[in-house]
Amino acid sequence: MTTLRDITRRATIVTTALIVGLTASYAPSQAAEGEARTTITDHPGAPATMLQQFEDLTGRPVGDLDKVLAVDTGGRNLTGDQLEALATGKEVDGVKVVGTIPGSRDVLGTTMADLADGAYDGKGDGGTATSLLFASSTPDGREWCLTMCVASGKSVWECLLSRRTGELILTLGFAGSTTLGETKAAFEKANGVAVEGPYSVDTLIGDREPSADEIKTLLDGKDIESMRRVATVDGPDPGWALVDLAEKSGVVYAKTKGHLFSLNLPFLGRFLVFCVSQDNGKTWKCSAKKWGGF
């Protein structure tokens, strides 16, 4: 079963939230600000029923259940970012994680009350959590869902689904002798789509390799703190080797060198590839967004 942690390791996720849901007695109904909720009466199999109802409403799978978090929010409503932080093991001020339960078919068949104490033990009493957070993901890691169910009365739970879609980040390794054209061809093959260019190459320098989040930021066309742009060459020769790009850009030495290539993806516009080296250009680690089609 795929976990959110596994997804985070293999792909940087660029998240955009689409809040959807159900309301009252499993019948869909829009609520304020475009949201919709569901009210689930607890029973054996309530978690499975709740997730199935979301699939029926949205027409899209919620994926495999990765884990369930029992949390005490202190009566507060949580934002999407706070739910995401909890699901990925981070702390949120004022929120106590009572327990974490690995996802399984058995867990889907139990009651909400059984999970409320942070353990799947079949007791169904003594729950200390005010909310249950269900984290699920599709096998390819392109989509994942967080479902927050809040206790409302002795056996009633109100649930809201936050669906997140993401773009995978491809990372390929190259020798310094690899040409710019060969680098482009490798990403074309990995993505299964042809790109035009390169039209330009920016050279960046810094004291360390950028983090995964910083690489994502660069691929979004934004600047980062750990590396600064020091040169731009328009219309670079596809025959130039990666090891020679910095010198051809007028940059002689830096502890960490990076190049950001600007290409064009037909119908969609600019497509960026970022390459970084920490051994004076002998080896390079290059990253680009995964393109899976229209």
Q: Would you mind describing this structure in some detail?
A:
The structure is a single chain. With 294 residues, the chain is α+β, with helices and mostly antiparallel strands. The relative contact order is 0.15. The model is unreliable at 1-36 (pLDDT under 50). It is elongated and about 70 Å long. A hairpin with a 5-residue loop joins β5 (131-137) and β6 (143-151). It has eight helices and 13 strands. The two termini are 28 Å apart. Strands 1, 2, 3, 4, 5, 6 and 7 form a seven-stranded antiparallel β-sheet that branches. It has a six-stranded antiparallel β-sheet with strand order 8-13-12-11-9-10, with helices on both faces. The chain is 20% helix and 35% strand.
Features:
294 residues, alpha+beta, six-stranded antiparallel β-sheet, 8 helices, 20% helix, disordered N terminus
